[in-house]
Every structure is written in C-alpha cells, then in structure tokens.
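One record is kept unedited as follows:
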Amino acid sequence: MIFFYISLSTYICFNLIKYKKALFNLQKNKYDIKTYGSWIFKNYKQTFLNKELLSIILLIITFNFNLKVIGVCTVIFYTLMFLLDFKKKIKIKINNQMIARIIAIVVIFIGLNIWFVLDYMSYHYADIIFDNTAFYYIVLIMISYFAYIVVWIANLIVKPLDKFLSKTRR
C-alpha cells in the first residue's frame, strides 16, 4: 500500500509542473478554444513527442507485472520526470478565468483519484469492487501524457461559464 501512496504523490508532483506548463500555454493563447487546440497539434514535439513518451513503457509493465512492480516503476519514473522539470520556472497570471480552469482540472483529477484509491483499498482488503487496479495506472498515465488535451477539455467545459459570468457582471 505504501508504494501506491508514494507513486501517487510523485505522480501528482510531476503533474503539477506539467499542468502549469499547459495552463501557461492556454493563457498565452488567450483562453481561445480553437487557437489552443490548433496550437497543441502544431507544437506536437512539445506536447506529445517528449521525454514522457517513456511512460508507454510503464503501460507495458502494467500488463505484465503485479501492482508492487507497477508502483515502484511509477515512483522511479515520475520522480525522475519531476526532477528534470523542477528547475524550469513558469509564472502564470492567476485571474478568474485561470481559477475556473484549475478547478475543472482538479475536479477531473479528484474524481479519478478517489475512484483509484477506493479500488486499490478494496483490492487489498479482499472485498474487491472493480478488480481493475492496473487499469487506473493506465488511466493516470494517459491523463498525464495527454495533459494539454485535458487542459483543452477543461477550457471547453468552463468556456460557457465564463460567458455567463461576464454577462452577469454587466
């Protein structure tokens, strides 16, 4: 169980940095859904062909080994990724639009992590609910890898709220 919590904490630390980069790029594109969506695919080397592509190896490991091996590999991988990206400082401006997007991303992550924790705990205490714990590692790795698309989806979800709030302020 300790490997699970350590792997989850290293995963979250790395994703804080990665999502900060994605939100910074969204802010540079002025929160526009079309502009940011096209930016993602124009800059595919930055968004998809990066060092995190090695996480595909973690996906292969999830199909072949038990949960402790998956947990240890996740700890090692995301700790290294965190240390490589930690020195790069990016400052984003916090405004109402940014706060709304951060809340949408946090809700997505909290929902998945609660589901993951409940399933993991039930797996180890013999009252198995889902019996798909490796599946959740796959989901979390994919959400990390596709962070720019998750930010784009959060922007898509929050955009109508921005329009509503701007109309009510007038």
Summary: Residues 126-130 have pLDDT under 50 and may be disordered. The CA atoms of residues 122 and 128 lie 5 Å apart. The radius of gyration is 17 Å.
